[in-house]
Design a protein that fits this description.
Number of strands: 8
Strand order of the largest sheet: 1-6-5-2
Largest sheet: 4 strands, parallel
CATH topology of the largest domain: Rossmann fold
CATH architecture of the largest domain: 3-Layer(aba) Sandwich
CATH class of the largest domain: Alpha Beta
Distance between the termini: 22 Å
Number of helices: 12
Helix content: 25-40%
Oligomer: single chain
């Protein structure tokens, strides 16, 4: 049983809003970085949705000092990354750094604990010293899309590029929304460390950012949709690319709209 199971009981793990993106070379997360920064692989472990127990868990280690949960969830995620095979070539795991002021205020960097859990499962080292956030920027939480990108411009730097030169780097953060922070950090790395490659892994991704869905309906609506049964497998698999008409043919379940109410119900991953 994965170490992360100590944080989440077996029943809750079975109902976890897992994305399955770490098994897919092309997925909605990696597409967010197309044309922005070269990325080998990118994925998120969970869908981040309002009213979901996993959202509360993430807030717990992000704002309320429950850092052990970040470590254990990282180990669970890392086990899935290792089993999936796409991240087998990773050489080093690098967490997105906090500015020193915020780190001192919070007492730790939650992304670092997620990264340590992932690295332990992958059997590779963690580097928390080579990349730094040299400018303190306001929180991204309440900012609009354009403000988020402007807020992170030029805030990262690489002070030890030789340690990352030629390496396959797995860049880790807690929650992916617009992708602005990860893209800015990755841009600083690839622009400084010669011949390096960057992959990305976040513990969660905003379902609203990917699908325009705010998470109404709860887990009951998700179960009622029959989405998992229609697919006949553990994870949803997304078409490559999305069809122009926004439809997705899910096995025996027939067509579902990726933009309409059916998809909003299909991704009802709250408790």
């Amino acid at each position: 049983m994965p170490d992360g199971a100590r944080t989440v009981c077996t029943v809750c793990r079975m109902d976890a809003p897992l994305t399955g993106f770490w098994t897919q070379v092309d997925n909605p997360v990696v597409r967010k970085f197309w044309g922005l920064v070269p990325v080998v692989n990118a994925s998120a472990f969970l869908f981040f949705v309002r009213g979901n127990g996993y959202r509360d868990l993430i807030h717990g280690f992000k704002y309320y000092g429950r850092w052990r949960q970040a470590l254990e969830m990282g180990a669970w995620y890392g086990g899935e990354l290792a089993a999936g095979g796409l991240y087998a070539g990773v050489d080093v795991v690098v967490p997105v750094p906090l500015h020193l002021r915020k780190r001192l205020h919070r007492g730790y960097n939650q992304a670092e604990y997620i990264a340590r859990g992932i690295a332990e499962s992958l059997g590779v080292p963690v580097d928390v010293h080579s990349v730094r956030r040299h400018r303190h920027n306001p929180s991204q939480a309440l900012k609009e899309h354009r403000q988020r990108w402007e807020n992170v411009r030029g805030i990262f730097s690489v002070r030890r590029p030789g340690r990352l030169c030629g390496k396959h780097i797995l860049l880790v953060d807690d929650v992916l929304t617009t992708g602005a922070t990860l893209a800015a950090c990755a841009e600083a790395i690839v622009g400084t460390a010669p011949a390096c490659r960057v992959s990305m892994a976040t513990l969660a991704v905003s379902a609203y950012e990917l699908f325009g869905w705010k998470g109404k309906g709860g887990l009951e609506a998700f179960r009622a949709s029959g989405f998992r049964r229609a697919l006949g497998r553990r994870f949803p698999v997304f078409p490559t690319p999305f069809p122009a008409d926004g439809t997705y043919v899910g096995g025996a379940g027939g067509a579902m709209s990726c933009n309409g109410a059916a998809a909003h119900t299909a991704y009802s991953l709250s408790r």
